[in-house]
Design brief:
15 strands, Rossmann fold, 17 helices
Length: 470
Amino acid sequence: MRILLTIPTVDNRSYMGSSYSMRFADNFIPSLGLGYLAASLAKRGHEVKIHNPVVPESVERIVEEAERWRPDAIGLSLFTPHMRSVRELFNALGEAGRRPAMIAGGPHMSALPEDTMLRHPFDVGVVGEGEETVCEIAERIDRKEGFEGVAGTAIRADGGVVFGPARPLIDPLDRIAPPARDLMPPLRTHRPTPASIRRFPLAVMITSRGCPYGCAFCDRAVFGATYRAHSPEYVMTEMEETVSKHGAKEIRFFDDDIAIDRDRAETLAEMMIARGARTPWTCNISAKAADPALMKLFKRAGCWQVLFGLESGSDRVLKKLRKHTTTEMSESAVRAALAAGLRVRADFIVGTPGETMDEMWRTVMFAKKLNVDFAHFNKFVPFPGTKIHAELARSGRSFDYEENWSDTDASNIVYLPDGASPREYSEFLSGSYKSFYLRVSYIVRRLSRIRTFTEFASHVKGMAALLFLK
């Protein structure tokens, strides 16, 4: 079998909307998800190609690749902001009888499987983790058999959608192969966000799956709520190969929380120290896990920055988001990281249902008070599969992401907070960044902490994005 794996995206300007300057600061890295699928398929003897551009592009490029390579099947990883382009892709590929078998997977497919299958003529959809499911699908295509009964799938039948049995979560996680980085764009072509890089090229790793926290704004349709992790030995082998074979000079661990399993996090750090802690790294970690002892250990192991999803400076909003943290916990975690000598990046969500303009500005003031190195004020979007999306749907709200790409671009508003006018909210979204970053004290502190040319260049790009932000 020849299988082409790709993500149907949109062109760069459409992705950025009127805030096109944000191209300087956005995070464009190839999908590790496609890398894992490719590795599993290749292990079964299939010929796999990943068409995974580093920056968003038009669907015509995918069609050109398909016409040139002539795959037996095309696997699409679907993300909600890209769904408008799926229809364009089908139209460009031509009549159904001439198309390769079309397989849909990814977060949007898992969150809205019935809606996705009814809207688009996919041959089969993958619901949940895809490595084992897509291999079984490939075998069915190779044998020219149907997909009935394949665990973890959805197919169209009799005017509706029929689901196969649920596929068990992959456990232990070590049984899947590391992502096929040799089939992905070289690391030097990646464009990581300026806030998360000190040395280039940077590689991303994901060492665990499943998050037990249950935040109301997060979709867990693909990996579930059961935490599973690669063994420390597996992680170290992948990390060393990524450095030695693919030229990575820095690693970013993209786990939801690197320290859900405290003992495992400590073992990983100690193994890095034992091997000389030669490669700098950053990670995501919950405020619940970041105590002084662990932050000091991470620092010794080569970590230079931690990312906290703090979400809000209001305890009332945190409770509505089901974050199970408080502003006091956030302050304690940030203090521990800064005291250990780590940089701190904090992500916030602004404009959630029931949040007032006063609470949104309180979040900006909270970020300043914490003295974090980087703050991201992310516009709330009710993504399908989340508890908040379900609550809004029950109250009569509807969001058609496939018809209105502007719902999720970088400038237009999909959800307007109660009591805020469109203009007031729009001005806040741009003003929050300028209020935080364009402070003389902040600029002086940032310049004094630059350690590499890559870091300096990243800061220049970030400043350009801010100065021209609409």
